[in-house]
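Hi P.,

Sorry for the delay on this. The queue was packed all week, but I finally got your sequence through. Input first:
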Amino acid sequence: MARIDVLTGLNRPATRSTVLALLGALALGLSVGSPAVVAQDESKSANTQVAAIVRLDGEIDELTERTLEMRVARALAMNPRFVIISIESPGGAYEASRSIAWNLKELQKQRTDLHVAAFIRGNALSGATIVAFGCEFIAVSPSAQLGDSMPIFTGALAPKVAEKFISPVRKDLEQLAMESGYPIDVAGAMVDPSIELHRIEVKDKA
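Then the structure:
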């Protein structure tokens, strides 16, 4: 299996065993290509599963929101340790995307024993990035792309007008990042083109 990078939030520090379990569940789930339960935890009851994979494909709209909610509910009935949202989406409707993200966030608050992870297996752009930031973990395949959540405009807009569209989306993604423990400045830069981030590397001269 190709390398998968896992980004974990700082608010719910993950143990090494938890991350390894997530990677194992991903590896098994991808190998069998199953959107449902991928493995059973032999140390627990027969009704307890290690992970369930729920796919989020294509454009996000209200139908996507309702369908995903039903799929997650079915997955929870199997009492998994992980619910993995497997994403390949160009994004879509902002309200539906933010609703999915905050519903996932609320689920994690209600079920502290449950880990919700986003697996970016292709592109997760625009609203799909918002959904990913609602998860405790974000796992990214080598060929995947995450980010670019700037609202799409039809035609040129004056800077002050554009800011009215950008500001609520930026604040929403930054709030999700803060609650999940992801870098807030990175979240903001994914929405607002006026935010510049610079990476500084200090080499050891010794």
